[in-house]
Amino acid sequence: MDYSLVFSEAMKLFSIMLPMIFIGFFLSNLLRATRYLEYTSIPMASITEMARLPKTCSSVLTFFFLNSWSGMGMLSSFFHKRILGERDVIVTVLIAQLPKGLHSAIFFQAPVALAVLGYEIGLPLLFLELLVFAGIAVAGIFIGRKILFKNPSEHGDNTELSISEEKEKETGCIARAGAVLQKSFHEFGKVALVLVPTTFLFIIILNLGLAEYSAEALKPLMNSLRLPDAAVIVFAASFLSQIAVLSAAGTIVVMEQITVLQCLEMLFIARVLHLGIGYVKTSLPTNIALFGRKLGLRVTCVEGFMVETGLTCIVLLLIILQTYPG
Question: Global pTM?
Answer without folding.
Answer: 0.81
